[in-house]
Design brief:
Blueprint (H helix, E strand, L loop, with lengths): L11 H15 L1 H4 L3 H24 L9 H18 L4 H26 L4 H21 L1 H4 L5 E2 L24 H24 L2 H11 L1 H6 L4 H27 L1 E2 L1 H4 L2 H14 L4 H31 L5 H4 L5 H15 L3 H5 L12
Antiparallel strand pairs: 1-2
Helix pairs in contact: 1-14, 3-8, 3-11, 3-13, 3-14, 4-5, 4-11, 5-11, 8-11, 9-11, 13-14
């Protein structure tokens, strides 16, 4: 309870689901062998942190921002360019992360102070313009960022796949730097998630929810709306920056497609809505569901198409063609939103009068 800031998942079904996801990520290298499975698990950890940090804005504060991917890119480029330009050392990694945090804070303050006084739709447009400008800037500064090609870089030796810290495998898994890198991503993402959970369950988090429900009443009670929204933007930006840094560290590459693509922002928005806004546990469920579907739906459809072809079933082989996986993924999430408008967390909450609402 203390670790979860007094706010565990509400409802037995949600508790079991969250516990299974966390346990699967914790034991992923041993439960799911293979590079693809480990990459999927690492991406899930990164996206959980990114989605949770965005939910602090959207779900708890009621702010619609399209600049979240920009902060993600700042973290990725900060770490990537430091390791590329300096050395593959922990010092360069720390320097890049600190510089990324400072830049993200400056951008978040600028966006918050100059834009949060306007109405929500205009704020969303301002953040979209800023994020797009940052993407163009990163693509054009080829000498610094590598342009559209991005930058590949080395990471500290202890995290490199070739580094072995034990001669014998652990439960059949090689004890190498790749394993350490995964658990670095997992532990840092988990710790940051718990910090965000503490933030939203603090008195500050209660004020954010009050502002979301009725900003005029909150202001009448004496709360400084712009201050709280700006601080929420800064906290959210720092979470996204850390997620970007972890992503770059895992991929050992940074570029516009992996760090600043607007599709990342759209994916994050989908994960927040499907998982459930206003609950950080929704970030765990939504991110895990989306990343696994994105990684394995095409393979599943290929298997179904082969089975249908072997059974000589009409139309089904073409319907389950692996190239149509995006269509099925989109349809699945449309149905999820239609049948669970409050997200998966909202659908799994206890019945009214039988328990507390899902959190």
């Amino acid at each position: 309870m203390t670790l979860l800031s007094g706010d565990p998942p509400r409802g037995r079904a949600l508790q079991v689901l969250v516990a299974l996801i966390v346990l699967a990520l914790m034991l992923a290298p041993f439960l799911f062998p293979g590079a693809k499975a480990l990459n999927t698990a690492a991406k899930t950890c990164v996206m959980i942190l990114l989605v949770a940090s965005y939910d602090v804005l959207l779900g708890y504060t009621g702010i619609v921002s399209f600049a979240h991917v920009m902060f993600f890119g700042v973290g990725a480029y900060g770490v990537g360019l430091a390791l590329y330009g300096l050395s593959a050392s922990w010092g360069a990694l720390a320097l890049g992360l600190v510089c990324a945090f400072i830049l993200s804070l400056a951008l978040a303050l600028a966006i918050g102070l100059f834009s949060l006084r306007v109405q929500s739709i205009f704020f969303a447009m301002v953040t979209l313009a800023v994020a797009y400008a940052f993407n163009v800037l990163a693509s054009q500064l080829s000498d610094l960022t590598g342009g559209e090609d991005g930058r590949s870089f080395k990471i500290p030796e202890i995290l490199q796949p070739g580094f072995k810290w034990l001669d014998h495998p652990i439960l059949g898994v090689q004890a190498n730097g790749k394993l350490l890198a995964y658990y670095l991503v997992f532990v840092v993402a988990a710790a940051a998630f718990l910090v965000l959970l503490r933030v939203v369950n603090s008195p500050f988090g209660r004020v954010l929810q009050a502002i979301r429900e009725n900003p005029f009443r909150a202001e009448a009670l004496g709360y400084r709306i712009v201050f709280h929204r700006t601080l929420a933007t800064c906290i959210s930006a720092l979470g996204a920056t850390l997620a970007g840094a972890l992503s770059a560290l895992w991929l050992r590459y940074v570029g516009p497609d992996t760090a600043l693509s607007f599709s990342i922002q759209v994916d994050v928005l989908v994960m927040v809505v499907v998982g459930g806004m206003g609950s950080l546990y929704g970030a765990i469920v939504g991110a895990a569901l989306f990343v696994v579907a994105e990684s394995y739906l095409q393979d599943l459809m290929g298997a179904l198409a082969n089975v249908a072809a072997d059974a000589r079933l009409p139309m089904l082989p073409g319907l389950f063609d692996p190239h149509r996986w995006l269509l099925w993924l989109g349809l699945a999430f449309v149905l999820a939103v239609y049948f669970a408008p409050l997200g998966i967390v909202g659908a799994l909450k206890p019945a009214e009068g039988k328990g507390r609402p899902a959190g």
